[in-house]
Structures are given as C-alpha cells and as structure tokens.
C-alpha cells in the first residue's frame, strides 16, 4: 500500500461518494495548523456562528472538493483529547457522540503537527477507536524535517490504516491531495489502539444497547462524560448515574490509565516511523528568542514598546480613514438635504445615516487593533505576553489570558468580551468579562477628544509631549486601574467553581499568515458592525423622533415664544431661526426627559441638554457626540460650524462658558466608568448566559460613574 | 495508578529544577490536573528539562517530548521527579 500524495493517483483508486454535500469536521491540537487548513479549504466562504446552547465560535464554510462535490467544513475548537477540559472543547463531544445530530460529520480531518507527532496522535487514536472515518493531515512536515524529525509516511500509513496527507497548510501544500482524499469513500481504521478493560464490559454493553451505539469505545465515552453531553435526557443521565455507581466506575483513574496506555501504544508505533536526528547542538531558535522577549527587563520593555506602537497605530493611522468616513457621511447628508426635504428626509439624514456613520467611523480603529492582535497571536508572541503577565494578573483575580480581552477592550468591548472565551476557568473568565468594559473603548474617544479639545490647551512639553495626549493617556490609565481593582474586588467576592490552570503549549515563533490576519480583521469588524451597529442605528432613530416631536402643540407655542422674543430683542433672521430651534428642542420629548433628570445630574455639573445625551448614550456611548451635535445644531440652516465652536459658544446661567474644566472632566470621568453600551450588555448576557452579570455590571459601573463624576466636579469646581 | 496517596517528604518536583536542569517524571500528584498533564505528554518516565522562568519567577516553561510547555509553579510542584 502506498501513501497518497499525488491527487491523480487517488482519483483512479476509488469511486466518489454519491452525496451532494458531505459534512467534514476539522479537529486537532491547538497550534497544529487547523485554522490555516480551514482557511485554505473555505477561503472567504465561511461564517462564524455559535454552537447551540453554548458560546463557542462555530466556524463553518463550504469547500469545493471536486468539480462535482461540495463539502461543508466545520472547524472544531483545538483540543488535546476527547476528554474536554474547557467549555470550548465540550462542543466536540456533543457533535461527535450524537450520530443523530444534523451536524454529525461524514468525515473527520485530524490535523497533526509533524514535529510533535506523539502528542498529536493521542487525539487521533481516540477518534480511530470511535470508528469515525478519519483522514490524517500531517502538517508542517517540512518544518519537522528541518528540525531533524524525519517521518516515514508510508510506515505511518501502514500503522494507522487511514489516509495520511503530508502537507503544509500555511503554504497550501498538499491541499489538492487532501481534497481528493476527502471526496473518496472514507476509510475506517480497524486497528484498535486501546483495549478496554474487561471488567468494564458488562456496564459498557448495557450502555451500548440502550443508546444503540456503534462501538464499545463510544459507550466508554458515554460512561465518562454523560454529565456533559447535552443531548442526553434527564432520565438517561439518571440511568447512567445508577449503572455506573453500581459498577464502581472511577472516571478519573480510568481516564489516566487510558491516556497512559494510548501513549505506550503510540510510542511503540512510532518507533519505526519517526527518526529523530539529534543534530541540535544549540537551543531551538524560539527558545533563544525567548531569552530576550521574556527577559526580566527587556521582556516588559519590549511588550510596552509594542503596546505603545499598537495604540499609536490605532489612534494615528486610523484617523485618516476615519476622517474620510466622516467627510463622506457629511457630504452624503448635505447632498440629500440640498435636493430633498421633508420629515422623512430628516429622519434619513439626521437619524439613520448619521447613526450609521457613527458605527462605521469606528471600523478603522477596530480593524487596526485586531490586525495587531492577530499578528501577535499568529507569531506566538501573545503566548509570551500571557506568560509574562500571568503572575501579576493572578494577583488581581485575573489570568495571563485576560491580557488579550483587556487590550482588545481598548477598541471595543464587544469583540473583547468574546475573546475571553479562551480562558478556561469560570471565575477568571467572569472577572475578565466583568471588568473589560472599564477599559476605555474607542466609543469613548470621541467624547474624550471633544471635551479635551475644549478645556485642555494644546501645549507641548519637550517638543513632542502634547498635554492633550497626556490627559488622554491618563484617562486610559484610570480606566485600566479601575478594571484591575474591580477585578481584585471580585476576586474576594466570587467563589471559585473550579481550579485555574495555566498548563498550555508554548507555541514556537512563526511568521504570521496574512490570510488569517485578514480574516480576523474582517470577522471582528463584521461582529462590531452587526452587534453594535443595530443598537446604535435604532437609538439614533429613537433620538431623532424624541428631539423632533413634542406633546400637543408645544412646538407651535415654542415658535411663537421665540418669535416674540426675537421681536423684543431685535434679532436677525438666522438668530431667530436658532432661537426657534432651541425653544422647540426644549419643549420636545427629549427636552422634557432631559429636564426631568436635571435635578439628579445637577451635582455632577450637568444641565438638561447633557441629560439628554446621557440618556441616549445609555444605549451606546458614541451617541453622546451625535446627540450633542444634534441638540446644538438641530434646525440650524448651516451645518458647517464645527462641534467644538458650537460647544465653546455655549454659556451657562451665569454667562460663563458652559464647558469649563470641572464640567468637562466630570463628563469624561462619567463616560470613563459608566456602562453605557447596550451592545456590551447584550454580549455579556450571551457569554455568561445569565442576566445577573450584565445587570450587576450596569449597576456597578453606573454607580461608580456617578460617584466619581460627582467627586471630580466638586473638587474642580 | 502512578499517583501517590501522600507526598513523600522532600521528594523533588519539577518546581525544584534549575534552568537547564533535567529530570525524569516519576508520578503526578494531583489526580485531576494529572489528567491534563498526561494528555500533554507528561507521562511517568518522561524526560523534562527546565527551560525558562517568567520574569517574575512564575509561571515557568519546561521542555517535554521536544516541545515547550508552560505551567505555573504550583502546577509544576505536582509533577514529582525520580
């Protein structure tokens, strides 16, 4: 028997299966090149959803295997074995152990890192014992060879009895062969890798019978994991519980024995297959690089330098496309308003298009940030960051892996909270999710920049340190400190459900795969636009209605009042128009609501106009700037004056500038702490599967915001 | 199994290795964490080498089966050496 590396050879061997769409699941160890393979197979033709009932990304896509055969590819979370240790990994057993499931795969492609074949084969042997049709994608063969690991592929094929495709998924080598083999009638390995202990047989046979299972090993898996299998009924679970207690089934001990037995078997098997030429006199390149990148001093210096560069990019580079988007939206609105008029046109321009613009404007920042995060993850550097930060983060009830959500939180809490899924430990993950929204996200930037521009002079120190920039950085720092000290608080309050582990493979350094980076950027931006966008657009429309209508004939009365005043004060036409608009807004529904909460926010220095903005930003913070500009510009003929000038000309009751230092800082502090993002609350609810967490977050953050803003205003007043 | 009911006084664990020092795994002390470590290839009889420590001394990386594994000190402590 030969190993199939030439697609032409395979085609002749067997007839293609007569199924229109085959379902293929991808499974493999973390870092075994599974994602690359998935991207190679599906390209842009993929979508990310959720596995039913859990918050684990389910990536599916379609791949044209042969001109006549299309396959649906499901990317399963990376795992080391079929005994899941995390929430993510649990979806694998739900999928593979329920042959009735509509997602049950026709074929499983196992990716294995050739340079670490022993550990990668553990998972393979388990799948083989389930007698699921398997193809082994032996990845990074070239890399292994350069490290002195030579694999005799035909011998491995003889030992395993399933098709083996040597490949390099990053470069796309071996893809054609893999597609062809995947389109064939799948082979089932008949070599058992693990002999189930005889004494378990009675129990396993009853399980096999009751659930009509194909293999003894699947019955054993049911015995180990019935509590995690979502598709089993309550009665089934109780039945299994009784059966296994009667049979003295010690899951933990048996799993340990099984793993050892499997490794023994794999070792025997690999004796003739893998030849390691111990040529490495010096340390591996990755380990040498680590001596610098995780160095006591240089390690942190380099990390902070990278972080600085990332933020620089997020704020400086992204500003160009952002300005373009801003300009485009303004021009579009101008164009529409010049040519059409009427309430519906106002709704379209001031409500919908302005709202959409408010969403799109953040896309460049999110794209740039996730480009960096993806590159850092791809190269393997992120693992070093979690390694260096774990000790510190742990002191605050977090985990080294909390670094990624916290950094991502600087762009947007929505994708950031979703990235907390990689944290296996429940408590660590909840704390990370809880505190991530305290990191200043890009939606707060417009609020900060507008207010900073108003009250902080553009002074330079040493020629390059800009005072405005320093204040902005200070705000980010306050947000970060708020996040970690809140985490500390939660660490004390929350009880741990399970132990926190940090046992993980330290990936070797690699060049980033730009395709993966591109896909990550696309995916995160899409998530943001869809998740946050719908809320923001909806709020923009509601706001427009509230600000454009008032009860009864309040609007006519406001106009009359304004006209009378205009006559007395001898105002010109433009001033009269503004006066009318201002009075009308005061008597609109928005104005009424804003006035009714004014007493509550007066101690913070705010008036009813800010009250309106606070209310509308309870859906999404970035609406603040939109609301403020709507409130101050609604009804104005000229939209050219910038927001800054409008705000500067605003006077308080004493005729002093309204946006003074105390008020501006009080507002910034309020926005820094407050949970004003319905999109985030929705995501937290989805990720934690309870209302307790988002509600606690809402109460905690808003309370903190009120108190801190109060202190700020009273001190600076 | 390879787990010991009681830790022998003074038995060396991976935690005690100095950077660059080698050892052979004797047993895994913690049943639950042991499963995870077994799956990651930390089997009794396997060669381990202390590779590096994080700047603050914890976590550490070890080399086992030709790959680098990172773990915390209290996790390393459960891997006893011969």
TrEMBL record, chain A:
<feature type="binding site">
    <location>
        <position position="43"/>
    </location>
    <ligand>
        <name>Mg(2+)</name>
    </ligand>
</feature>
<feature type="transmembrane region" description="Helical">
    <location>
        <begin position="696"/>
        <end position="716"/>
    </location>
</feature>
<feature type="binding site">
    <location>
        <begin position="53"/>
        <end position="57"/>
    </location>
    <ligand>
        <name>GTP</name>
    </ligand>
</feature>
<dbReference type="GO" id="GO:0015093">
    <property type="term" value="F:ferrous iron transmembrane transporter activity"/>
</dbReference>
<protein>
    <recommendedName>
        <fullName>Ferrous iron transport protein B</fullName>
    </recommendedName>
</protein>
<feature type="binding site">
    <location>
        <position position="39"/>
    </location>
    <ligand>
        <name>Mg(2+)</name>
    </ligand>
</feature>
<dbReference type="InterPro" id="IPR011642">
    <property type="entry name" value="Gate_dom"/>
</dbReference>
<keyword id="KW-0406">Ion transport</keyword>
<feature type="binding site">
    <location>
        <begin position="28"/>
        <end position="35"/>
    </location>
    <ligand>
        <name>GTP</name>
    </ligand>
</feature>
<keyword id="KW-0472">Membrane</keyword>
<keyword id="KW-0408">Iron</keyword>
<keyword id="KW-1133">Transmembrane helix</keyword>
<feature type="binding site">
    <location>
        <position position="42"/>
    </location>
    <ligand>
        <name>Mg(2+)</name>
    </ligand>
</feature>
<feature type="binding site">
    <location>
        <begin position="139"/>
        <end position="142"/>
    </location>
    <ligand>
        <name>GTP</name>
    </ligand>
</feature>
<comment type="function">
    <text>Probable transporter of a GTP-driven Fe(2+) uptake system.</text>
</comment>
<dbReference type="GO" id="GO:0046872">
    <property type="term" value="F:metal ion binding"/>
</dbReference>
<keyword id="KW-1003">Cell membrane</keyword>
<feature type="transmembrane region" description="Helical">
    <location>
        <begin position="665"/>
        <end position="684"/>
    </location>
</feature>
<keyword id="KW-0479">Metal-binding</keyword>
<keyword id="KW-0410">Iron transport</keyword>
<keyword id="KW-0342">GTP-binding</keyword>
<dbReference type="InterPro" id="IPR030389">
    <property type="entry name" value="G_FEOB_dom"/>
</dbReference>
<feature type="transmembrane region" description="Helical">
    <location>
        <begin position="297"/>
        <end position="318"/>
    </location>
</feature>
<dbReference type="Pfam" id="PF02421">
    <property type="entry name" value="FeoB_N"/>
</dbReference>
<dbReference type="InterPro" id="IPR003373">
    <property type="entry name" value="Fe2_transport_prot-B"/>
</dbReference>
<dbReference type="Pfam" id="PF07670">
    <property type="entry name" value="Gate"/>
</dbReference>
<keyword id="KW-0547">Nucleotide-binding</keyword>
<keyword id="KW-0812">Transmembrane</keyword>
<comment type="similarity">
    <text>Belongs to the TRAFAC class TrmE-Era-EngA-EngB-Septin-like GTPase superfamily. FeoB GTPase (TC 9.A.8) family.</text>
</comment>
<dbReference type="GO" id="GO:0005525">
    <property type="term" value="F:GTP binding"/>
</dbReference>
<dbReference type="InterPro" id="IPR006073">
    <property type="entry name" value="GTP-bd"/>
</dbReference>
<feature type="binding site">
    <location>
        <begin position="75"/>
        <end position="78"/>
    </location>
    <ligand>
        <name>GTP</name>
    </ligand>
</feature>
<dbReference type="GO" id="GO:0005886">
    <property type="term" value="C:plasma membrane"/>
</dbReference>
<keyword id="KW-0813">Transport</keyword>
<feature type="domain" description="FeoB-type G">
    <location>
        <begin position="21"/>
        <end position="188"/>
    </location>
</feature>
<dbReference type="InterPro" id="IPR027417">
    <property type="entry name" value="P-loop_NTPase"/>
</dbReference>
<dbReference type="InterPro" id="IPR050860">
    <property type="entry name" value="FeoB_GTPase"/>
</dbReference>
<feature type="transmembrane region" description="Helical">
    <location>
        <begin position="352"/>
        <end position="376"/>
    </location>
</feature>
<dbReference type="InterPro" id="IPR011640">
    <property type="entry name" value="Fe2_transport_prot_B_C"/>
</dbReference>
<dbReference type="Pfam" id="PF07664">
    <property type="entry name" value="FeoB_C"/>
</dbReference>
<keyword id="KW-0460">Magnesium</keyword>
<feature type="transmembrane region" description="Helical">
    <location>
        <begin position="470"/>
        <end position="494"/>
    </location>
</feature>
